[in-house]
Design brief:
- The complex is a heterodimer of chains A (258) and B (142).
- With 258 residues, chain A is mainly α.
- In chain A, 66% of the residues lie in helices and 1% in strands.
- Chain A contains 13 helices and 1 strand; from the N terminus they run αβαααααααααααα.
- In chain A, helix 5 runs antiparallel to helix 6.
- The N and C termini of chain A lie far apart (58 Å).
- Chain B has 1 helix and 9 strands.
- The longest helix of chain B is centred in the N-terminal third of the chain and has 36 residues.
- In chain B, strands 1, 2, 4, 6, 7 and 9 form a 6-stranded antiparallel β-sheet that branches.
- Chain B has a single domain, classed as Jelly Rolls (Sandwich), CATH 2.60.120.380.
- Chain B is α+β, with helices and mostly antiparallel strands.
- In chain B, strand 6 and strand 7 form a beta hairpin.
- Classes of the chains: A mainly alpha (258), B alpha+beta (142).
- The interface between A and B is large, with 51 and 42 residues.
């Protein structure tokens, strides 16, 4: 049992996978990267649970008076998440505006080349009301700007794009669930791996980014969010409201002028 | 100078080759995904990848949501390698609805989460002629 030394009771080489593993003794070779879910993964479940009024959730995104690079990266994530909300609301004109805003924000941090074709596709697909293509292109735009940042040796800034998107997606989720509370909808907030991942990433930011006022503000609130989403099997209406209030405050800070 | 240029060239070729093989592994993972796209699965653009020695599994922690159905597709560029991917819930219980690993270059697993939360994806190179084998893992949901 060579593999036992690496993964405790986990060893698949004999054929069928074991019925259970000891998650407390996972190997040191745990992949650090977490793929942050796209808002659609959550919104799709909400659609199955009821008929949320996405028009109420949708909010115009402003890109005037852009702040420093960390704020622009966070705002880029918020804007892409807003794109997913616009798709849910089937607001083609808003999708087109968001596509253009993604390009403007990408330009502000020097990664516009990576998303030109994506934003063109978003606008073309919005004309055709091809919602599935828009979802795919928004996901692709998010991946491409992050990849471009990594290539520019700005991987830490790329994390902020994911964080901005997650905050806006969670704000939207809590707005929908808060309006018509149900246990299954609230359970979607149970995302410990994502919170731990963002906390880990913010803890290891370089001092310049870590000292950014906005980043500091977000880093201060994440442990609180982590506590609120922690219980498995459901989050109470009061906690949904609290999570909404924190994420709305942070998204507002991201979208405000410096 | 000539030595430096040769060194840089060699490193570049090595890096390009390494990158290409993870890309190849991804292309097989995406090829495995194709039939499921027709069934309505949305494939994420993000993916995991790297290289692994034989029989040294790697764990990936991933958030899954109750109400969705997921497929995880694993690919490798080594045709004769045997690879596998399995999914466990936060308590360590096997959480998959079905899996397959009998096709060259590919393996896959389907999950219908009973609760929303963290899940452990365990990827493994079960057999390979190489010391380290490139792999990639993509996923889709509906």
């Amino acid at each position: 049992m060579v593999c036992a030394a690496f993964l405790g009771p986990v060893c698949f080489a004999q054929g069928e996978p074991p019925r259970s593993i000891d998650v407390g003794s996972l190997p040191a070779t745990v992949v650090d990267e977490v793929v942050v879910p796209v808002p659609t993964e959550v919104f799709g479940v909400l659609d199955k649970l009821g008929s949320p009024n996405w028009h109420d959730v949708l909010r115009p995104v402003k890109t005037e008076n852009l702040g420093k690079r960390p704020q622009v990266a966070l705002l880029l994530g918020v804007t892409i998440a807003e794109g997913f909300i616009a798709v849910e609301a089937q607001e083609a004109e808003e999708v087109k505006k968001i596509g253009r805003q993604v390009l403007t924000l990408s330009k502000a941090i020097g990664v516009q080349k990576s998303v030109i074709s994506r934003t063109s596709s978003i606008i073309e697909a919005a004309d055709k009301k091809d919602w599935q293509t828009i979802r795919l292109e928004l996901d692709g735009a998010s991946k491409d700007v992050k990849q471009a940042m990594i290539e520019l040796e700005d991987a830490q800034l790329a994390q902020l794009v994911s964080l901005g998107g997650w905050l806006r997606g969670t704000e939207a989720l809590t707005q929908v669930v808060g309006k018509n509370y149900n246990k299954d909808g609230a359970e979607l907030l149970h995302q410990p791996a994502i919170l731990e991942y963002f906390q880990r990433k913010l803890d290891t930011l370089n001092p310049r980014l870590k000292e950014n006022t906005l980043v500091k503000k977000i880093a201060r609130r994440l442990p609180e969010l982590h506590t609120l989403i922690e219980p498995a099997g459901g989050v109470s209406p009061q906690k949904v409201e609290k999570i909404h209030s924190i994420t709305a405050e942070l998204v507002k800070a991201i979208s405000s002028q410096d | 100078m000539k030595t430096i240029v040769s060194f840089v060239l060699a490193v570049s070729i090595f890096l390009c080759t390494a990158h290409a093989t993870v890309d190849d592994a991804l292309s097989f993972a995406l090829q495995a995904a194709q039939p499921y796209v027709k069934e309505g699965f949305t494939v994420r653009e993000d993916y995991w990848g790297g290289d692994l020695p034989v029989k040294q599994p790697k764990a990936i922690v991933q958030q899954l949501f109750k109400g969705n159905e997921y497929w995880f597709w694993m690919g490798t560029d080594v045709a004769s390698a045997k690879i596998s991917v399995h999914v466990y819930d936060a308590e360590g219980h096997l959480a998959e609805a079905e899996y397959w690993r009998n096709k060259p270059h590919m393996a896959a697993v389907r999950v219908v989460p009973k609760v929303s939360g963290s899940y452990y994806l365990i990827v493994e190179i079960e057999k390979s002629p190489l010391e380290r084998t490139h792999w990639s893992l993509a996923y889709g949901f509906r």
